[in-house]
Design a protein that fits this description.
The protein contains 10 helices and 6 strands. With about 220 residues, it is α/β, with parallel strands linked by helices.
Length: about 220
C-alpha cells in the first residue's frame, strides 16, 4: 500500500458517471486523496481494482450486470485486497449486512457531507471500519434480530432426544444418511426418520440450516 507521504489512492464504482465525476472532484480537492480510476458496473470495478491497485474503493450497490455486493465478494478474494466502502442511497438492514458479509469495510450514504466523506476515506485507508449513523443503527437492529432468531432455534434443541442430537451432529459434519446409518449402526430408513423429526423440531427448512444450528450450538465437538 501507500507510504506515509503518498496520497490515498481511490477507485470509484458507480453506474452514474455524474456521481463518479462529483466524487472525483470532492476527493481530489483534499490534497492527499486521488481518484486513480472509476467504473460503472461491478465487473468493471473489479477490473479497475486489479489494474490500479487502490487503497480504498467506494462502491455503489445497485448497478446493472454485476451488482456491488457481488463485486465486493470478488474483490475480497484478490491478493491484498483494498478496503471497500459502500457508498449508496440504500441503508436497509439487509443491504448493510450483505455488504459487510461480502467483505466491505464500511457503509456510507451518498448524503454524507463532502468534508466528512474526505475524512472517512482517510480513516478507511488506515484499515478502520467506517459506518454512517443510520447504517450503524440498521446493523445493530438486524444483528439483534439475528441473535434472537439463533437463540430461539438453539432453545429448540432441548426438545431433541439423545439419538436425534447425535444424528444432527452427523448432519452438521456433512454426512449422508447412509454414512450416518453406518456410523450409528442403524438402518438408513431410521436415520431418515430421525432427520425429518430434527428438522420439524428445530423448525429448520433443510439440512444446511440444521447443520449450521448444530455448529452454532457446539454439537459438532
Amino acid at each position: 500500500m501507500n507510504g506515509p507521504e503518498e496520497p490515498v489512492r481511490v477507485v470509484v464504482v458507480d453506474d452514474e458517471p455524474m456521481v463518479c465525476a462529483h466524487l472525483r472532484t470532492i476527493l481530489d480537492s483534499s490534497g492527499d486523496i486521488t481518484v486513480v480510476g472509476e467504473a460503472h458496473d461491478g465487473a468493471a470495478g473489479v477490473e479497475a481494482v486489479v489494474r490500479h491497485r487502490p487503497d480504498v474503493v467506494l462502491m455503489d450497490l445497485r448497478m446493472p450486470e454485476v451488482d456491488g455486493i457481488t463485486a465486493i465478494g470478488r474483490i475480497a478474494q484478490l491478493a491484498a485486497p483494498p478496503y471497500v466502502v459502500v457508498l449508496t442511497t440504500f441503508d436497509a438492514d439487509h443491504y448493510v449486512l450483505r455488504a459487510l458479509d461480502a467483505g466491505a469495510s464500511g457503509f456510507l450514504l451518498k448524503s454524507t457531507p463532502p468534508r466528512e466523506l474526505i475524512g472517512l476515506v482517510r480513516v478507511a485507508a488506515g484499515g478502520h471500519t467506517v459506518m454512517s449513523r443510520t447504517a450503524t443503527s440498521s446493523l445493530l437492529t438486524a444483528g439483534g434480530r439475528r441473535r434472537e432468531e439463533r437463540d430461539r432455534r438453539t432453545a429448540l434443541l432441548a426438545e431433541l432426544t439423545e439419538r436425534e442430537r447425535e444424528v444432527l451432529a452427523c448432519v452438521a459434519r456433512g454426512m449422508s444418511n447412509a454414512e450416518i446409518a453406518a456410523a450409528l449402526f442403524v438402518g438408513e430408513a431410521t436415520v431418515k426418520g430421525h432427520v425429518s423429526r430434527v428438522l420439524a423440531k428445530t423448525q429448520c427448512a433443510n439440512r444446511t440450516q440444521a447443520g449450521l444450528l448444530a455448529y452454532e450450538a457446539g454439537l459438532t465437538g
